[in-house]
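Researcher: Please predict.
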Amino acid sequence: MKHLKELRKANNLKQKDLANYLNIPQATYCRIENSKFEADYNVLLKLSKKFNVSINYLIDDDLSEENNQYTKNEFQQIKEIEQLQILSKEIKRIDKQVDNLIKEKFNSKIIGIYNNNGTINQNIMISNNTLETDDEDKKINN
């Protein structure tokens, strides 16, 4: 893997540093870097993320700079998608916390009615067997 050694040196890293990062013995990393041992997919994926290059760039000596630039853009998009996924999980976690606080505080439950574009169209609160909507004229008692 010709590019791996170049990337490592360009980032002022030692073989030991990358071996520790990959959680593999230094001797194994050395064999991977010198193309004496084929890295598995997970190792290639970690290295590609570490250096912000494609897996193809790591294993192929003949990729043009234009192709590599395109894959750098792809990696930027992948990172943005991963960040959005993390934010989405955080929003869901916070939403559950808010629901729990409402249940504890008011002994009630809020149900969001979503419209087709995914935004909340109307909130409904159920409390003490009373159903209340956002519209004051639509209060319903059981």
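Model: The chain is about 60% helix and 15% strand.
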